[in-house]
């Protein structure tokens, strides 16, 4: 990245806003964008937040603006529950800014206005990325079964009940949009298993959307992924971020799904917009950046057994007979849930293809895309 001293500066005619205006809280603004019923993707929300900051800033040089944006980016990463996705958005914004060379006759106020306009044009058009991916994904969704067994079935369509089966993880906007496009626009028939995706139960949202669209969908337990994999033709996942290695940062459970798919010879396709590409290069599950005060699944301090109450061990839930009622399930406490990870890293060797708005690529192609965006910095 070019040093700050080498970047051009443009004097400001007048401050963008009065210095008496209250300071802009980037964390609160970002939180509001992410707190909606169907929030925009985290990288897009990060870009919108920085654009709003630029529009309100009274900085008069590029050095001041870069310092302001770097500080805001660090604040967002430190406060974000998922700093990986947030950072990918702020990195794109910062890279775009450092590449700009405004003409001498342009005032710095005009330059900032143009920067904000370009950023918001990106935010507004970010949904087109999912449309492009949906079209590409439709080539992999077959109408009916992709199994050779289908050739032995009767020709009567009423008897051809075997359809292509997909296994989907959690909830992903781009995955849901791709499946809706295949079913509604291309009239393809297929069925979907979707993981429950604890602890937030995001798979239930996927189930509701697909069921409402007439797509046969069944929710499965996260622990049933290996059980159901032999019945599936392919697995499809979204991504919180796509690493430079070609691996995926995904909601917890994506890694185990990829392992099961690889072990059983099932292709796994990852759908991700290019603004989720990041220069992060983790070597293991434990290299993912985190803003939490302690690492997930750390052991608590030893407890004196004599201080435990005799009734602290719950009864064993059981359902001995077919007509027995379902037992009340044991639930993890909120504190125990908070100590569990919510993201994991899927290594590139487990991924068949990555479908992006930049095209369909193997995991190794991600580094080429990032090289084109960020250069050799």
Automatic annotation (TrEMBL):
Keyword DNA damage assigned: no
GO molecular function: guanyl-nucleotide exchange factor activity; translation initiation factor activity
Name of the protein in question: Translation initiation factor eIF2B subunit alpha
PANTHER family reported in the protein's UniProt record: TRANSLATION INITIATION FACTOR EIF-2B SUBUNIT ALPHA
Subunit relationships: Component of the translation initiation factor 2B (eIF2B) complex which is a heterodecamer of two sets of five different subunits: alpha, beta, gamma, delta and epsilon. Subunits alpha, beta and delta comprise a regulatory subcomplex and subunits epsilon and gamma comprise a catalytic subcomplex. Within the complex, the hexameric regulatory complex resides at the center, with the two heterodimeric catalytic subcomplexes bound on opposite sides.
Subcellular location: Cytoplasm, Cytosol
Family affiliation: Belongs to the eIF-2B alpha/beta/delta subunits family.
């Amino acid at each position: 990245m070019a040093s700050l001293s080498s970047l051009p500066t443009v004097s400001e005619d007048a401050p963008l806003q009065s210095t008496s205006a209250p300071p802009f809280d980037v964390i609160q603004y970002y939180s509001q964008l992410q707190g909606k019923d169907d929030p925009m993707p985290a990288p897009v929300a990060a870009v919108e937040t920085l654009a709003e900051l630029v529009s309100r800033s009274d900085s008069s040089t590029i050095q001041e603006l870069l310092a302001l944006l770097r500080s805001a980016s660090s604040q967002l990463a430190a406060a974000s529950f998922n700093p990986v996705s947030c950072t990918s958005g702020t990195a794109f914004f910062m890279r775009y800014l450092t590449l700009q060379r405004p003409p001498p006759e342009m005032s710095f106020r005009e330059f900032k206005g143009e920067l904000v306009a370009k950023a918001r044009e990106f935010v507004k058009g970010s949904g087109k990325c999912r449309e492009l991916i949906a079209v590409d994904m439709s080539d992999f969704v077959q109408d009916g079964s992709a199994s050779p067994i289908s050739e032995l079935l009767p020709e009567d369509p009423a008897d051809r009940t075997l359809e292509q089966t997909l296994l989907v993880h959690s909830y992903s906007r781009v995955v849901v949009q791709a499946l809706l496009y295949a079913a509604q626009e291309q009239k393809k028939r297929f069925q979907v298993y979707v993981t429950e995706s604890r602890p937030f139960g995001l798979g239930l949202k996927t189930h509701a959307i697909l069921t409402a669209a007439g797509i046969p969908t069944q929710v499965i337990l996260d622990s049933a992924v290996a059980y159901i994999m032999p019945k599936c033709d392919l697995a499809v996942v979204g991504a919180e971020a796509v690493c430079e290695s070609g691996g995926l940062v995904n909601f917890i459970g994506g890694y185990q799904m990829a392992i099961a798919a690889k072990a059983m010879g099932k292709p796994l396709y990852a759908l991700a917009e290019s603004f989720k590409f990041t220069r992060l290069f983790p070597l293991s599950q434990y290299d993912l950046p985190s803003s939490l005060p302690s690492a997930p699944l750390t052991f608590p301090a030893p407890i004196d057994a004599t201080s435990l109450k005799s009734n602290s061990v719950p009864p064993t839930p059981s359902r001995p007979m077919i007509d027995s009622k379902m037992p009340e399930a044991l639930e993890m406490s909120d504190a125990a849930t908070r100590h569990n990870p919510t993201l994991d890293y899927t290594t590139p060797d487990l991924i068949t293809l990555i479908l992006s708005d930049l095209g369909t690529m193997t995991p190794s192609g991600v580094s080429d895309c990032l090289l084109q965006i960020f250069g050799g910095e």
